[in-house]
Structure formats: C-alpha cells, structure tokens
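Quick one before lunch.
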Amino acid sequence: MKFNTFRNIVSMVLFLGLGGTCYGCYAWWQRGLTVEQAELQQRQRERVEQDARQAAQQQLAAQSAAATAAAAVADERARATTPGAYWLTARGLRPVDTDALTALGQPVVDKIKDAARGKPWKINVYADDGVRFNRVKLDLDRDEKDDESWTIFADGRIERKVSTRDNGTMDGAFRLEQSGWVDMRSPPADTATAATATTAATPATATQAAARLVDTDMFDLLRRLAVQDKVKDATRGKAYKINLYSDDGVRFNRAKVDLNRNDKWDESWTFKSGTDIERQVAPADDERYTEVSQFIDGAWVKKP
Ligand SMILES: [Ca+2]
Ligand SMILES: [Ca+2]
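Model of the calcium ion complex:
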C-alpha cells in the first residue's frame, strides 16, 4: 500500500470516528434538552394548577367571610329593629321573659300598662321617645314593688337589673344573650361549676332525670343572692317555691322546694359543696323523703 493511500484511509477513519462521536454528543445533548424542557413544562403546569387552587381557595374564603359578615349584619339589624322577636329564640327564658319580649313586639305607644294582665306578674313597657320601647318594669308578685327593670338599647341589647329582695334596691344585673341570661357580675367559682353543669347535655337514663327549670332557678339564686341565714320564697311569682338556708352564714348549704305551693315541701336539697349537690324527694308530696338523687353532669342521678 502506498503511503498516500494509507494516510487517506487513516484520515477517513479518524474523520468518520470524530463525526460519529460528535453526532453522539449532539444526540445526547438534544435528549437532555428535551428532558429538561419536559420537566420545565411539568413544573409550569404544576405551578399553574397550584395558583388556580390557591385562587379558588381564596375566593371561597372571601365568599365565606362575606356571607358571615352579611349574616352578622342581618343579625344585628334584626336585633335592633325587632328586639322582642329576636330575643324570643334565646335559651332558658322564663315565662315572664317570654311575656315581656312579646310585649316589645306590640305597636309602639308611650306606655303599655300591665301587658300581661291575668298573669301572676305585672309588666309595664315604656317608650320614652315615643319611637321604640326602651324600658320594661316587672313586678313578679304584683305587690306594687318592681322586682326587675329592663333596658332595651338602641342596638337591641337587653340588660335587666334585679331586686332580689323585692325591696326596690336593684342588686343584681344580667344581660341577655342567645345562650340565656348572663350574670354581669363574676359568679363564685364553685357555684358557677354547678350552674354550668345544668347546661351540659347528658342523655337521661332510667335512673337519671334531666335538669328542670326549678333546678336552673336554684343555681341562678345561689349565684346571685347575698348569703343570709334564710331566704323565704326566693321564687315569688313562680309556680314553685324555694327557701334557701345558710347554717354557717358563709354560704347557702340547704334549700327546700315546694313544687306546687301547697305548703308541703317536695324536695330537700343539701349543698355539700358547689359540685356535690344532693336532694331528697318526697314523691307523694307528704314530706316523707324516700328518694335521694345527686346532681351529676347536668342531670339528677338516683341513688340506689
Ligand atoms: Ca314585687
Ligand atoms: Ca308540695
């Protein structure tokens, strides 16, 4: 083989080898580029989807907040324009509350005298500006002394001052909330626990009896009455009678209940502590106490 021919062959092999290598590099680079572009597009798609999800969540949150705000505005408007109807849905209202709130729904005049004629209590309603009813006075036992004085504010809030001894001195104050009357003074810790227990929803069993209105009233009295040796007929004007007793002058430790006001006690309560409450019951209303129950988790649980 001539030298020239050999050189040409070597050159050609080198050239082809180099060309092949370059093509391989190019193809590899191209493949890398394609993968990178695919990953980039995937990331962009994910980002777009995430943005869309976030935007949808923000829109939902904004709609929810707007609906809540609109509901709050509607609620406040209803309270301000028709406070009587608005508060009739509150929990734990006494019959006298229902009568007073119903009276607030009557056409406005300067004064409605004895709005609950025929009832044990007397309700007077006043519109001092002739535009809306802004005051209510309650005489729970019709002894011509006001037991309660209510204020209905322009925004529909209601507060009541209470003369616990029916002597004209207003020594208690409550405000109405949808959960019921709230004592505006801080209740003592132990009786507060007992009072809270009355609202606990515990399903009654055969040996359990759910809390009654008289129970709620009892705890309410314990919370707001000043301790004294004896409070006679603390629920004047109501269907049942409660007497409270403090044997040590420090706290009320006993109570008696006449459920039907026939001057025979149906129940005798003992407050061993704020949460340990026991009652003896005379089922035949003959003051012979044959049953004992304990107030546990908002219900009366019969003792064996
Ligand atoms: Ca009175
Ligand atoms: Ca009785």
